[in-house]
Every structure is written in C-alpha cells, then in structure tokens.
Automatic annotation (TrEMBL):
Pfam families: Lactamase_B_2. Residues 62-238 form the Metallo-beta-lactamase domain. This is MBL fold metallo-hydrolase. Transmembrane segments: none annotated. SUPFAM superfamilies: Metallo-hydrolase/oxidoreductase. It comes from Svornostia abyssi.
C-alpha cells in the first residue's frame, strides 16, 4: 500500500476503534510508568506533558520544551492568538531551586509558547534557533535568547548541553512538516498556532551527574549528526514516528540508549489541569513492541505528568 494510503487507513482504523485503542494506551502507560529509569542519586526528571521536561540536580533546574498554557482546539481553529498564560505558568512551573535555562528543540506552538514567559519569570536564558530568538524578541526578551551553535557544549551549572541538528517528522501523510519554515510573525496578536513555525530542529544531549540524556521532541533525525553513543536515557517524542522510515532502528542504532522514555503521546489541546488524554492515533500501546522488534536490550518506560 502506498504510504499516504497506509496513513489514511491507519487513521480510519483508529477512528473505528478509538475507545478500545485509548483503553489499550492507558493500560500500557500504567505498566510503563512503574519502570525505574536508573537515574543517579539526586537527579530528578519530571515530565510536564507533551515534550516538556524539567531536569533538576543539586537544587538547579533546566527546562526542555515546557508547555503548560495549553491552547484549545477550538481556539486554534478560530485563529485566536496563542500566548503564555501567566497564571498557569505560576501554578505549574514550580522548580525546587534555581532555573539555569530553557532549552527548545523547535518552535511549534506546543514546544515554545511558554518559553519567553518562563525565561522572564526566572531571569534565565532561552537556548534554541533563530526562530526562537525572533519569538523572544516579540515578547521583549531578545536579550535572554541564545542562538545556539550546533554541537557546541554549553555549561549550565551541573548540566552540559549540546544541540544536535535534526529534522521534524513529516506529519502530513509523510509528505510535509506542518508549519514548516522560520517564524516571521511581527506582532504578538498575530501569534496564532500556525504562526509558530518549526524553525531549525534540534535534538538535545545533556550530561549531568555522570549520566547522559537525549531529548528528541519530534520523531525524526539526521543520522550523521548524532555523535553521542551509549545514552542512558532517551526522552523520545513518539508522535509522528510512523511517518519516518525505519525510525526506531535508525535512532536506536545512533544513540545506543539504555532506556527509552515515551513522551509527546498525550493530547496537547487538553487543559494541563485535566486528566491525561491521548493524541489522535498515537498508539502508545504498540511502542514496547516496536522497540522489541529492533532490540531486546533497551528498557522502555513512560512517566506520569508532573506539573
């Protein structure tokens, strides 16, 4: 079956059996959340939902793709501005100590909306692409933006961070990246969800406390750009993996991870305070089997959102 027809058929099967599929996803998630990550003493990894994480060590934290000001599907379709919600940020972005920086893998709305407000609140830099720099400038925070250099090691307290050039999965039936290109919006009231263009995409490698982690917000990669092997924990955004040919074999072969933690499978249009739901046809239930088909030497896990 041609790939576009395959994706359409997969979506149709999901629609026909949605309730059963979501029960299966919930059952597998329950099993995976009990799997220990084997982190060093003192290192805490918290999943914020979607592709967002907080890593904390010795009272110092970094954030990756944090997104708590959830835009409803209705507001997105109506073209309303998608902006940070200060009350939700104050309620849910509560680090146990200092915040050293916010790291951004790409600038789609579900990865970048809250970054300028979090950087302002905690008086810290935001690291990412040229599109992130433009987003920060729109919010009057240009001086806090760090336009990263690929493969350069950035020292943030106990964390050593490296941005690895990558690409976004082609979610539009395997043909196109949604909202591709650079963010060019010139006014905050024009920042609708579609104005948050993808920009340059990065995987993010992190060393801390003798452990290594790799964050990939979208399920695609540039094979030759990955230079870190033997990653302890791979924080894997799994939405869109079916649109990337041979994704798991390629990324596992490149990173050689010990543990893979699934994320970006939840419904990011749902309010952050609501019970977790699952994104359209994400199929979390098949995630462990997909990994096992490549290797039996990797532990698979998931986390409960902590905001």
């Amino acid at each position: 079956m041609p790939r576009p027809a395959h994706h359409v058929a997969s979506l149709a099967r999901f629609a026909a059996h949605r309730e059963r599929r979501e029960r299966e996803d919930a059952s597998v998630m329950s099993e995976l959340t009990g799997v220990p990550l084997g982190l060093p003493a003192g290192l805490d990894v918290a999943w914020l939902g979607v592709a967002g994480y907080r890593l904390t060590y010795e009272g110092q934290s970094i954030y990756l793709d944090p997104y708590v000001s959830r835009v409803s599907l209705r507001d997105s379709l109506r073209g309303r501005p998608a902006l940070p919600d200060p009350a939700l940020i104050e309620r849910h972005i509560r680090p146990p100590g200092d915040v050293l920086g916010v790291l951004v893998g790409h600038t789609h709305f579900d990865h970048a909306i809250d970054v300028p407000a979090i950087a302002r609140r905690f008086d810290c830099p935001a690291y990412g692409s040229d599109s992130l720099q433009r987003l920060m400038a729109l919010h009057g925070e240009a001086e806090r933006a760090v336009h990263v250099e690929p493969h350069r090691a950035y020292e943030l307290g106990p964390f050593t961070v490296t941005f690895v050039p990558s690409v976004h999965s082609k979610l539009l039936l395997g043909y196109k990246v949604p909202y591709d290109g650079e963010l060019t919006c010139e006014h905050l009231d024009g920042l609708k969800t579609g104005a948050y263009r993808c920009g340059q995409v990065y995987g993010i490698h992190i060393e801390v406390a003798g452990a290594t982690l790799y964050h990939q917000g979208s399920a695609n990669l540039l094979d030759d750009e990955i230079r870190h092997r033997g990653v302890d924990v791979f924080l894997a955004g799994i939405a869109g993996r079916s649109f990337t040919p041979d994704y798991w074999r390629r990324i596992i072969g490149a990173l050689e991870p010990r543990t893979i933690v699934a994320s970006h499978f939840d419904d990011f249009f749902r309010p952050v305070d609501a019970p977790l739901g699952f994104s359209l046809n994400v199929n979390l239930a098949s995630f462990p089997e997909e990994i096992e088909a490549v290797t039996r030497d990797v532990t698979v896990a998931a986390m409960t959102p902590s905001t």
